[in-house]
Amino acid sequence: MPATLSSRVAALGHALPPALPPVANFISTVRSGALLFVSGQIAVSGGTALHPGRLGAGVSLEQGREAATGAALAVLAHVAAATGDRLAAVRRVLRLGVFVASTPEFTEHPKVANGASDLLVAVFGDAGRHARAAVGVAALPLGASVEVDAVFELEADE
């Protein structure tokens, strides 16, 4: 039986959340050739954002990392939905965008973003190493502290 994204994630002690529908006028994934673009995702727990708020104003660095990991799990849920949960369908993680709601004084964005990056490298090994931007923003949808978007290279269409 071929390896699945969900089984690899489970082996790491996590579970893929449901691939939630978008909350506005966009779609969650777009495939163009071998590229899969995944729209920004946040970590959700019990119907609300996990660790809502801003880093540097009540949300700790560890909570930010957890929110980034949760957002990356949400990204992977959409990848699984787009690939039939086939781990082998993903050739490479190309790029992550990690948006961190923070105060102007907060400067640890890369450490927050490592919550997402570390998960993707754990899931895909060397193919999970990626280019990345980690940027601070004033606010995110639904009060989330972290949002992650991504670009993946998939196996070629047949």
Characteristic key phrases:
158 residues, single chain, 60s Ribosomal Protein L30, Chain: A, alpha/beta, 3 helices, two-stranded antiparallel sheet, 9 strands, 5-stranded mixed beta sheet
Adjacency order of strands in the biggest sheet: 1-2-9-7-8
The overall pLDDT average reads: 96
Low-confidence stretches: none
How many individual domains?
Answer: 1
Describe this structure in words.
The protein is an alpha/beta fold and 158 residues long. The chain has a single domain, classed as RutC-like (60s Ribosomal Protein L30, Chain: A, 2-Layer Sandwich). Helix content is 29%, strand content 30%. The strands form 3 sheets. The chain has a 5-stranded mixed beta sheet with strand order 1-2-9-7-8. Strands 3-4 form a two-stranded antiparallel sheet. The longest helix has 23 residues, at 61-83. It starts with a helix and ends with a strand.
Topology:
Blueprint lengths: L4 H7 L17 E4 L2 E7 L2 E2 L2 E2 L4 E2 L2 E2 L1 H23 L6 E12 L7 H16 L6 E7 L8 E9 L4
Helix pairs in contact: 2-3
Brief summary:
The chain is of the alpha/beta class and 158 residues long. Helix content is 29%, strand content 30%.
